[in-house]
Amino acid sequence: MSMTDPIADFLTRIRNACQAGKEEVQVPASNLKARLAEVLKQEGFISDVTRVPDRRQGLLVLRLRYDERGQSCIRGLKRMSRPGRRWYVSVDQIPRVRNGLGVAVLSTPRGVLTDRQARRERVGGELLCSVW
């Protein structure tokens, strides 16, 4: 069975694991998902990413971060661009997520970048998701 939106599946698995209080979550691997996970790690939303080979495409194992009260560092995830409605933005149109407390993730010609990195490099692209 083919999946129509693997990025939405990736975000939903993370969202469900955070709500269930899981330590880690496994998602099918791809280069885009691996880069997206690295961006989440750089921004402090997850603590570690490892790629585990299997007989198919491999798995990404994400270790989730929680604060001292046991609440997830990820308060929300939202898929912005989707297969039925792609959302491309120029550098001037990149939205601020929760007045800078969250992060928007873009797929640009220079790779997968956060909103701050894209503004700094003066490049736009496809708005993949926002995380806060």
Average pLDDT for all residues? 95
Share of β-strand residues? 25-35%
Count of β-strands: 8
CATH class descriptor name of the largest domain: Alpha Beta
Q: Rough shape?
A: globular
Properties at a glance:
8 strands; 132 residues; alpha+beta; 3-stranded antiparallel β-sheet; Ribosomal Protein S8, Chain: A, domain 1; 3 helices; 2 domains
Characterization of this structure:
The chain is an alpha+beta fold and 132 residues long. It folds into two domains: 6-64, Ribosomal Protein S8, Chain: A, domain 1 (2-Layer Sandwich), CATH 3.30.1370.30; 77-131, Dna Ligase, domain 1. It contains three helices and eight strands, in the order H-E-H-E-E-E-E-E-E-H-E. The chain has helices spanning 6-20, 31-42, 115-121; strands at 24-28, 46-52, 59-64, 77-79, 88-89, 103-108, 111-114, 125-131. Strands 4, 5, 6, 7 and 8 form a five-stranded antiparallel β-sheet that branches. A three-stranded antiparallel β-sheet has the order 1-3-2, covered by helices on one side. The longest helix has 15 residues, at 6-20.
Tell me briefly what this model is.
This protein is α+β, with helices and mostly antiparallel strands. The chain has 3 helices and 8 strands, in the order H-E-H-E-E-E-E-E-E-H-E.
Topology:
Elements: H1 6-20, E1 24-28, H2 31-42, E2 46-52, E3 59-64, E4 77-79, E5 88-89, E6 103-108, E7 111-114, H3 115-121, E8 125-131
Antiparallel strand pairs: 1-3, 2-3, 4-8, 5-8, 6-7, 6-8
